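Subject: Predicted fold for Glycolate oxidase subunit GlcD, 470 residues

User T.R. writes:
Posting the sequence so we have a shared reference for the thread.
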Amino acid sequence: MIAKEVIQKIRDVVGQAHALDSDLDRFGYSYDASFVPLFPPSLPDLVVRPRTTEEVAAVMKIANEHGIPVTARGAGSGRTGGSIPLQDGISLCLDRMKTIIELDEKNMMITVEAGVRTGDIYNVCAQKGLFYPPDPASFKYSTIGGNIAENAGGMRAVKYGVTHNFVMGLEVVLADGTVINTGGKSIKNVTGYNLTQLMVGSEGTLGIVTKAILRLIPMPKYRNTLLLMFSTLDGACGTIHQMLQSGIVPASAELMDRTCLNAIAKNRKFEFPDTAQACIITEVDGAEEYEIKKQGEQIETIAQANGVVELRVAKTAQEADDLWAIRRALSPAVGALAPDRVSEDISVPRNEFPEIVRRIRKIVDKYNLDFAVYGHAGDGNLHPSILCDMSDPEQAPRVHKAVEEMFAATLELGGTLSGEHGIGITKQHYLKDALGEAGVVVLKSIKKALDPKGILNPGKMWLEEETVHD
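User M.O. replies:
I've generated the structure tokens; pasting them so everyone works from the same file.
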């Protein structure tokens, strides 16, 4: 517990109304969007909602002085437990820091506070003909600070990249309250270590991001959106692989299996052929209408050779948005199919995507488990979801074995444990398998240098016995 006099110091900084310690408030910040059942829940001792960088720095100085754990939080949309305060302490929620500081049209950059929603960044830029491409499924409510902490991706990553590709500079509050600024608007910058990219994907373990300078690009003038149904999952995977080999670089290429289609149909008006076993939603965009139309025709030809059973082409922007709404509604629809869902975030080289899908199907069949497969097939990022009941003592061990074998297969194919959700607390057991012992030692050394007392988001990334606490 945090001493009353320390809580009062924090309230003197942020105001009485923004340092909350009621049971109800604390419970509201004890979980995120991950599939991690925690009993009893990990309640913070205090929820702090600063408004400025100066307030964040003052709170961190107090926390560091008293050795109080601090877990940063945006909208709580993370999938790996990154914002869950495992060691109590302070839940530092940056949702009040939501100012768009500057939209620099000349340099095509935007400067925002950490609590600005990703969707708001997109909308503000679009009004000026500019484009911020990263679009995680939670983009309507996730915050840019959280996106940076997790290096969030999204459906457009296949063509445009993920969050780190657009972060030019950061304002970061370190564990002791020191404020640093990294990067900037200059395109080229090799002044010392790349501290900007060090912070991206660090899951709040190295510092608290309070502001960001983001790179923008011109908004594409045209887009062509297609939905394709296939008689086999292999045919869908093959279509995406051949599409990329042909030279087409889609803005998005999303895969869904039959289980996903059934889940969507339960929750919204969505009809598909009885013979359909998989679906692709893909989009090409660009500056020339004829080129976009040509690429759409190429995709149709490739799909025909891979057993496509139905093809829908969006004729209007609204129809395109309606097709993408199907994909964005997928995660909660799949989650409703079973009491629990163990969903992963593996990523493999694009040429190995069909193979990892085949291996996952064999693994879940081996353990007699229900599952759904969907993901960003265009960039090799897959979200296999095991549909289960983890309270079943007979089923839970099979789920754990299946996940273990999925990760092993992923690493064997040259892949990674996480493409966009981070490690958090859900993949800690496997970090050493991915990075090797020496790699984990390097991570811990960086953590020790920036956070000697280990107060920033403790208990994340590596296992508890491997933490860097004194």
